[in-house]
Amino acid sequence: MLCLSNRFTPYGKAHMKLPEFFSFNQNNLQDYEDCEFRFLLKHVRQLNWPAVESEPLLLQEKKIEIGYLFHQLVQRFFSGMSPILLTDTIEDPILQEWWGYFLDLNLLEQPGVKFAEKMISVPFNGYRLVAKYDLLILLDNGHIEIYDWKTSISQPHRHFLIDRMQSHVYPALLMLQQSCSSFIARPSPGDISMTYWFPSHPQSPVSFTYSPDQYEKDLQILGNKIKEIVAKEENEFEKTNDVRKCKYCHYRSLCERGIKAGIINEDSNSADGDNPFEFDFNAL
Amino acid sequence: MNAKYTYSSEKFDLTTEQDSVINSSLNACMLLSGEAGTGKSTAGAFRLRCLIEQGVPGDSILILVPQRSLAAPYFTQIQSHDFPSSSMPSILTFGGLAQRMISLFWPIIAKNAGFSFPNKPCRFLTLETAQYYLATIFDPLLQQGYFDSLTIDPNRLYSQIIDNLNKSAVVGFPPSEISRRLTQAWAGKPSQTVIYQQGQECALLFRDYCLKNNLLDFSLQLSVFVDNLWPSLVCKEYLQQTYRHLIYDNIEEDIPVAHDVIEEWLPKFDSALLIQDTGGGYRSFLGADPQSSQRFFNLCSNKLIFSNSQVKTSELDTLESALGESLLEHKLINQYYSRNSVLPFSVLSFRFYPEVLDWVVREIQELIDKELAEPFEIAVLTPFLSDALRFSFSARFSEADIPFSTYRPSRSLSDEPAVQTILTLAKLANPGWGLKPTQQEVRSAFLGSIANCDLIRADLLSRMLYRPSDDPAKPLKSFDNVNHEMQSRITFTIGEKFESLRVWLFENSIKNTEFFDHWISRLFGEILSQPGFALHNDFDSANAVSRLIESHRKFRQVLQPTDGLQITGSAQEYIRVLEQGILAAQSLTTWNEQTNTNAVFLSPAFSFLMTNRPVKYQFWIDIGSQGWWSRLDQPLTQPFVLNRNWPDGKIWTDFDEVYNNQHTLARITAGLIRRCRSHIFMCTLGYNEQGMEERGALLMAMQNILRQVNFVREVPHV
Ligand code: SF4
Q1: Nearest CA to B34 among B250, B237, B244, B306?
Q2: What is the pLDDT of residue B261?
Q3: What's residue B564's pLDDT?
Q4: Domain coverage including residue B7
Q5: B161 with B182: CB under 8 angstroms?
Q6: Do B405 and A1 touch (CB under 8 A)?
Q7: Are B256 and B172 in contact (CB under 8 A)?
Q8: What's the Cα-to-Cα distance from B538 to each of A47, B109, B260, rounded to whole Å?
Q9: I need a surface site. Which of A143, B530, B583, B695 has the fewest CB within 10 A?
Q10: With an 8 Å Cβ cutoff, are A50 and B530 in contact?
């Protein structure tokens, strides 16, 4: 469907209307967190703006490809394909290394029922909240382990990871899904733990255990965030004050926030640019 | 899980018939049939909800539809804010299921399926990239004199060869049989059989090329899934364990090989609901086979029929019967109308196209203002929707401030002004390619690059500063070379932007290590979308540039190392094939984002039927057009012969052609009427878009009806 509205200003005065079939997820909520205006452009207006997000582009593309291939390998693995057969299909030496580290985790041997690439959608405050889990392991004792594969080269600090919307959405949504009779498990918050696992840093996963307190907080954070978003007029979506974010945002020219894309420094330990949350492999 | 679940029909305003489907047991195997508009898909969508509320995991439910647009009721249901928590059901077409399974199980099946490099990844071809590879195989054969008896654009030949391969895959016969089947049905000059033979040769060469290079076009995806994956234990077990419940909507619009797989799979599902639109089959030319779907009558234990339309009025029902009879019998045998009949249609005559467009827009304005119709309750339908017609309507709708949307394949990339601008700028930045743009192209590129640069200024700039013969390495001269008087005439603001553009192009020729799509992204972000440049606030153009980038990315991703094209070479090759129209970019824009936006819907009739969305008012444009009746001229293919129902060896005669056209038209008009709630405005034209007089079958059929109406109205009361 092509809507022939031609040119329109991004600063519409109309009340913001979410697109049909819209769901909130960690990705769009994080965008809102980073920059309200980006949320408006990307998720409400769904505006294609084909400028460079970050440089060097070739490296970025390589990162996306290898991340995609890693997720695909893991999905094939949990679909029952032999690891030897899968290993034979890998050409890239980095991917080969990552795959080796992944196999060392020995996840298949670990107890519990495993669900790979599980997508769950729940009604939440009059809207829908969705998450796609790379891996869920359900143990007999009611414990649930959430695994998320992060294929960035650098590994951000723990507090950066814990602060991300994903760390709020994923465990909370596992609690929220219990309301339906087709629930996958009925954990209490203390039964849930989450691990960000970096194949490029296999020895230093970042894990945390959920808690009733955090669940209450998350419900508030998510509820308030959604309430705030849907109550806004279009012209109330503000551009971020943190102009460093604009260096790695493809709407830079539209917002008049610079010309050239920011360069990712491979050696840098900063999360800017080489952002493990940057690519939503679930959307691929 | 056999407990009976009672759905609240009142809460959702459902009929008792719908209730009985929704609340069927969790192991029911049902076939639900009925006309369009009887509420079948609504029942299907609530059945989905009911399954989940009864504890069925969402991701164990497969919702299969022949075309993504037909899945709208299911998406709407799943996304509604009160839909229960659940893992997500899969909503797929058969082709989508095939591609997903190949992606997952590629390492297991690649070797058996005959691919040369089973350890390397496969690449899925788009229609564009398939055409590209076909062209590379085809061009040497054209030089050898293949198809020399045909005067037809080679791009149309490519698409028909691909179409033949697709038909072989959807019907389920080997591509080596294409020519035999077409030849056996051919009744014309024997020279045509050579063309069929040559077409098949190209198809087989293309298939061979794909197998040797791990490429999968749509036809090969289907064949690999049906012949290799589905029969394999690992895939079958995976699918049968993953999906325990099936909802299969519009089975009559799906392809026979999909029916074959589902027939075999059906007994393994815990529950199944198959939905059939009686009178459907609009996608026949794409391989849909309503006859093949009839098999499910014997395979489903429960058969339900919905017979009450929730859409059309009794007057529209009468029109459907009368028009069907008039089309098929060329006259009205039965008496449909009496003196007091209320007509749910009007037929209006105009001499020329602009008159009809003006009238339609005025009438729609009145419906909105006086009848308080919502724009989304109105559809304007044509047999085909040309760019010119779309443009004429869009100008009038915009002027009248009527929101509208249209559904058609997106414009060919090479026709997009923003794309033309970028291609010209790429040639200017890379004089070494030897692709020298014309002065007119350069003028258009300035017009499309610099904000507020009108045609006169763009013309001045191109005449004065585009000098490829002076120094081929620097085809653009500096604005400083222009005398002061001329500079102020062009304006210094425009001059400054011209300079930024010129310097950027000079400093940014495409490097050997750079992909063309990356270069375009930089050009767009660093120059064209910056303040003072033309794309700064032009979102339609930004969208066209995105499509260009995406198209090139897909193109170079499937380019083989053996193709001998370096990174930069791929840019030149891409531009060559794009400008030749081989990459026609017939990608359908995703349809679902704005289906329910409050806009008048302008569309070819077929596309409207495939949205399966009733409206209150329909406008049928130019009912005298032969386009409502005749099928496309396709010398290399024949969709009704490359079909399971066509008897082996039977000849396709003129009678078959007429019979087929008649029945197709009757089916389409019935489908339209069933999707109308109130009134159809039919417009006839003295002269069509090309200035010709046409009196097609639809017009003649409507005249029979009008004669009966007029007759009963003229007969005096007794
Ligand atoms: S460029 Fe900056 S202000 Fe604009 S959307 Fe991106 S982050 Fe927000």
Answers
A1: B306
A2: 98
A3: 53
A4: 2-98+228-306
A5: no
A6: yes
A7: yes
A8: 11, 47, 48
A9: B695
A10: no
A90 touches chain B (CB under 8 A): no
CB neighbours of residue A7 within 10 Å: 9
In this structure, the answer to whether residues B650 and B534 fall within a common structural domain is no
Q: Which two tokens stand for residue B462?
A: 């191109």
Give A235-278 pLDDT, tens digit per residue. Answer: 999 999 999 999 999 999 999 999 999 998 644 444 444 555 55
pLDDT in tens, B169-217: 999 999 999 999 999 999 888 888 899 999 999 999 999 999 999 999 9
Residue whose Cα lies nearest atom 5 of ligand 1: it is A38
CA atoms within 13 A on the CB side of B339: 6
Is B439 in the same domain as B550?
Answer: yes
Residue type, B394: S
- Domain A21-263 matching CATH 3.30.9.10: the answer reads no
Contact with chain A for residue B55, Cβ under 8 A: yes
The structure tokens 């029945």 sit at: B663
Structure-block tokens of residue B271: 């529950």
Same domain, B28 and B70: yes
Task: For tokens 């070797």, name the residue.
Answer: B111
Asked whether residue B454 falls in the same domain as residue B347, the answer is: no
Q: Is B543 exposed, middle or buried (0-12, 13-18, 19+ CB in 10 A)?
A: buried
> Does residue B161 lie in a domain region?
yes
pLDDT recorded at residue B590: 37
- Same domain? For B427 and B560 the reply is yes
Report CA B593 to chain centroid distance, whole Å.
15
pLDDT number for residue B127: 85
* Lateral strand order in the sheet of B245-248: B90-92, B61-64, B245-248, B271-277, B29-34, B302-306
Residues in chain B: 718
Interface contact A127, partner B, CB < 8 A: yes
Q: Which helix (H) or strand (E) holds B552?
A: helix B539-558
| pLDDT value at residue B409 | 57
Two structure tokens written together for B515: 């992909």
pLDDT digits (tens, 9 = 90+) for B207-253: 999 999 999 999 999 999 999 999 999 999 999 999 999 999 999 99
What is the number of other CB atoms lying within 10 angstroms of the CB of residue A72? 18
- Residue B299 in any domain: the answer is yes
On the CB side of B447, CA atoms within 13 Å amount to 16
Mean pLDDT of A187-191: 94
Give the span between the Cα atoms of A171 and A153, in whole angstroms.
25
Output the pLDDT for position B585: 44
> Is a pLDDT exceeding 50 seen at residue B3?
no
Residue among B654, B652, B655 nearest B186 (CA): B652
Cα radius of gyration rounded to whole Å, chain A: 20
Reported as a single tens digit per residue, the pLDDT across B85-123 is: 999 999 999 999 999 999 999 999 999 999 999 999 999
* Residue A48 structure tokens: 């294609």
B59 inside 8 A of chain A by CB: yes
* Structure confidence at residue B347 (pLDDT): 95
Residue found under tokens 């032999």: A82
Which residue in B191, B193, B189, B212 sits closest to B201, CA to CA? B193
Q: What pLDDT, on the 0 to 100 scale, is given for residue B689?
A: 66
Q: Is the peptide bond prior to B154 cis by the omega test (within 30 degrees of 0)?
A: no
Contact A252, A246 (CB under 8 A): yes
CA–CA distance, B211 with B296 (Å, rounded to integer): 35
Residues 6 or more apart in contact with residue B156 via CB below 8 angstroms: none
Separation of alpha carbons A128 and A146, rounded Å: 21
Kindly list the residues from chain A whose CB atom is less than 8 angstroms away from the CB atom of residue B104.
Answer: 75-76, 79
Q: Chain A closest CA to B236's CA: distance in Å?
A: 12
The runs of H, that is alpha helices, within B311-432 are 314-329, 353-369, 387-399, 417-429
Among protein residues, the one with the nearest Cα to ligand 1's atom 4 is: A255
Every domain of chain A and the residues it spans: 21-263
